[in-house]
Amino acid sequence: MNRNIIPLLAMAALPFLAAAAGASSDEAWKQLAADVEAKCRKAAVAIEKPVAAVDPFGTSHYGLALVTGKPKGAKGLVVQICVYDKQEKSVEIGSAMDAKKLGLTLGK
Questions:
Q1: CA 5 to chain centre
Q2: CA distance 63 to 102
Q3: Is 77 among the domain residues?
Q4: H or E stretch at 15
Q5: Could you tell me the residue range of the domain that residue 55 belongs to?
Q6: Which residue positions does the secretion signal occupy (predicted)?
């Protein structure tokens, strides 16, 4: 077999491999975002009906989300920062911060 044909075959296959990687990558990002959202909402035990706004990519090591909602047993709106460890698939959540103090409003 001619040695020159191997690089040519590799170059010809590259667009197909890139397309396959992109498709699986899109699905992987969606799965990551869904896992971050579910685990962050579950971790937000101080919030009634928590809503998670997930950073679509996070960092190289962490998924990130802001979890908002009404604090249990109180009025107002609070925000918690949630960090998802991509390797361990675990979350840590920060304390509830008053959304007004952060300059955030709900639905306006």
A1: 43
A2: 22
A3: yes
A4: helix 5-43
A5: 5-102
A6: 1-20
